Amino acid sequence: MILDSVLEAIGDTPLVRLRRIVPDGAAQVLVKLEGGNPTGSYKDRMALAMIEGAERRGVLRPGQRVVEFTGGSTGSSLAFICAVKGYPLSLVSSDAFSPEKLRTMQAFGADLVVVPSDQGRITPDLFVRMRHEVDRIMEAENAFWTDQFNNTDALDGYAVLGREILAQTAGTTLDVFCAAVGTGGMLVGVAQAIRGKVDRIVALEPASSPMLTAGFGGPHRAEGTATGTIPPLLTPGSYDEARALEEPEARELVKSLSRLEGVFAGTSSALNVLGAIQLATELTPEQTVVTVAADTGLKYLAGDLYL
After folding, report:
1. For 143-189, how does the pLDDT look when each residue is reduced to its tens digit (9 = 90+)?
2. Pair 172, 268 in one domain
3. Which of 17, 8, 14 is nearest to 35 (CA)?
4. CA-to-CA distance for 229 and 210, rounded, in angstroms?
5. CA distance 192 to 196
6. DSSP letter at 184?
7. 163 and 291 share a domain?
8. What is the CATH number of the domain that holds 134?
């Protein structure tokens, strides 16, 4: 089949069963491999939904500049979408995030502002400073801000991911879906699509920044998660439970995922799988936990994650 546009290559990613790292007697763990999207991230779904939603409403004009602040994957995905659709793009990011992500944004033609971090750590004030840069660009360039933390169009993109999971697990009872929270869009969008078909929706976060479980943020290195606030998209009732997980344990799991399961992913994906395995040990072998590998490990090779 020949696709009319590379944008049609977004989605329809595989769902695989983990076989070697899930303890005996636990529920089966299924992982949606989002590294199969064009930029290697599930954020392609969100970026396309946000841009096309703005086009439908007429709030994004042809040729208008787009702007966003981002930890990396959203920026890479927006750069990809805007390149295909012909929109100039300004992105605000930080040296706290992997250099591969920053280079990907520039490879697709985005203008990039890099805000310095506190010793490479992701802290709540970092996002405040990044947002200030967005305000400056909006005023100077009359740019359209996609506003990923508040943009409900993102939920439409992630609902498709949820519907894919349902189609791929037809005939299988789903007991738990779990995922780490960054903007909250993926967890909420998937939950909207699978609610009523799954018993529990569990939000995950690093224990070093336990905003959902303890009410405060903190520094961490799990890119794409835990901004130090409760994201607006994560509305009351959108999930059933929140759990905080140890980031060092997730970072160690990255290696087992690649070497034992062949799942090549980053820190947030490992956080998702760690949460899924912990939940699976509380269930029976006849039950099922589903989570998402958010992106590909190719985005993390320059750092210390795979050393």
Report:
1. 999 999 999 999 999 999 999 999 999 999 999 999 999 899 999 99
2. yes
3. 14
4. 10
5. 9
6. S
7. yes
8. 3.40.50.1100
